[in-house]
Amino acid sequence: MLNAIDAIRIFSGDFEETRDFFVNALGFVIGFEGEGVAVYDLAGTKLILEELDLSEPEAAGMVGRFTGISFAVDDIDTAYKDLKAKGVHFEGKPEREEWGGALAHFRDPANNVFTLVQYPQQN
Fold first, then answer.
1. Whole-number Cα distances in Å, 91 to 25, 95, 112
2. Where in the chain are the domains?
3. Which one in 10, 36, 92, 98 has a CA-CA gap of 20 to 30 Å to 59?
4. How far apart are CA 89 and CA 71, in angstroms?
5. What single DSSP character describes residue 64?
């Protein structure tokens, strides 16, 4: 009944800065943009950036949180260096994990946390 995940929504109180970060630092292409919303099509899954008025009570806790969204990369060290050179703020260097892969967490201008993941090579 349910198919693949179609879209993931991310929230920001500074829409312009966060939109520009996704385009300029991460290289995402905007497929649709409207007032307070930008949609990036990432190989079949949409990442939707939505603007929130941070003075509204229901906005509390929706911005600046761990998203649980991971972006797979083939070479985490190279991706880390390239993104860091573009001004992406990482919480630390890539760390090798017990399961054989590696992770590195970074933040967007709204302080939302994302993850780079390099999976172990399959033989």
1. 16, 11, 12
2. 7-54+66-118
3. 92
4. 15
5. S
Percent of the residues in the chain that have a pLDDT greater than 90, as a whole number: 82
What is the 8-class DSSP label of residue 101?
-
pLDDT at residue 123, as a whole number: 64
Q: Which helix (H) or strand (E) holds 77?
A: helix 76-85
Alpha-carbon distance of 59 to 37, in angstroms, equals 15
Specify the CATH number for 7-54+66-118; select among 3.90.1170.50, 3.40.605.10, 3.10.180.10, 3.40.50.150. 3.10.180.10
Name which of 87, 80, 81 is nearest 108 in CA terms: 87
Among candidate residues 71, 74, 76, the one with its CA nearest the CA of residue 92: 76
Residue 80 has pLDDT above 90, yes or no: yes
Pairing of strands 30-34, 37-42: antiparallel
The helix or strand, by DSSP H or E, that contains position 10, with its residue range, turns out to be strand 7-12
1-14 pLDDT, tens digit each: 777 889 999 999 99
